[in-house]
Amino acid sequence: MSTRKPFVGGNWKMNTNRSTGPDLVRAVADGVLAAEGVEVCVFPPFPYLLTIRSILRDRGSSLRLGAQDCCHQRDGAYTGEVSLDMLKDCGVQAVLVGHSERRHVMGEKDELINKKLRRVLEGSIEAILCVGETLEEREAGHQDIVNARQIKTALAEIPASLVERLIIAYEPVWAIGTGKTATPQDAQEAHQHIRELVGRTYSPDVAEKLRIIYGGSVKPDNAPDLFMQPDIDGGLIGGASLKSADFVAICKAAAEAASAKRSREGE
Ligand code: PGA
Fold first, then answer.
1. Using a 6 Å cutoff on CB, does residue 222 contact ligand 1?
2. Could you tell which of 96, 176, 214, 251 is best to mutate to test the pocket of ligand 1, judged by most ligand atoms within 8 Å of the CB?
3. Interval between CA 68 and ligand 1 midpoint (Å)
4. Fewest CB within a 10 Å sphere: which of 86, 206, 250, 260?
């Protein structure tokens, strides 16, 4: 467990503008200097990627730059889409794939998500595959079935060698932007099942190395308990990533949890 570096992503969604985005990223870049040993990545809207990248470069920041989506096709006549090569050209190092808003608002299906995931991983970029059940599915006790279906379809034809660049984000749809969070125990159980599934699909070693992060109304006050769970390796943060103080506090909680887990293991 101690070999997994925590990951915290700030998914800005369709928020910020030419002035608030730079302010936010400057404050985050300064604040996360105190969250040592955590991989922190921000996911600004497409039009601001280059601006944010130049701010990070000028500061020599280790903060990583991510994109919220990308097209499954390499290039060509796909009006309105953005290709992986374009994102790489803008300095993007990680891409969100299959976020619940893409699935449930924009109607993306598992098969399309598989194509996008292959495009990103084959393009040598880190991918954060988002999965999670709806409220109806949770109430029917189907969360594991839904997660397994989403993960198996997304990973079809992806070899173990590419899984090194994969992070899975478990984000129950009913917890996203609603203020409702899964209990640390419920989240841990889902993460453990996901890790077991990846172990059966690839190997126990691949599963042990895979980072599985939690998303859904993570805030500074609930982050410590979530991140202390053995199979929770960080978080994907929406609303709270727009407030630099909250986001930095969450990154620090990830650093503290990782160090507490290491010393617990060493005992
Ligand atoms: P939230 O969003 O933190 O606002 O619930 C999480 C996400 O959508 O990644």
1. no
2. 176
3. 12
4. 260
Mean pLDDT computed over 225-247: 98
- C-alpha span between 242 and 17 (Å, rounded): 12
- Domains of the chain (ranges; CATH) run 7-266 (3.20.20.70)
pTM, full prediction: 0.97
Relative to the CA of 215, which ligand 1 atom is closest? 6
Q: What local confidence, expressed as pLDDT, does residue 265 receive?
A: 82
**Nearest CA-CA partner of 75 in 66, 60, 57, 87:** 87
Nearest atom of ligand 1 to the alpha carbon of 218: 3
pLDDT of residue 144: 95
Q: Whose CA is nearest to atom 6 of ligand 1?
A: 238
pLDDT at 264: 87
pLDDT digits (tens, 9 = 90+) for 76-124: 999 999 999 999 999 999 999 999 999 999 999 999 999 999 999 999 9
Residue 8 CB–ligand 1 contact under 6 Å: no
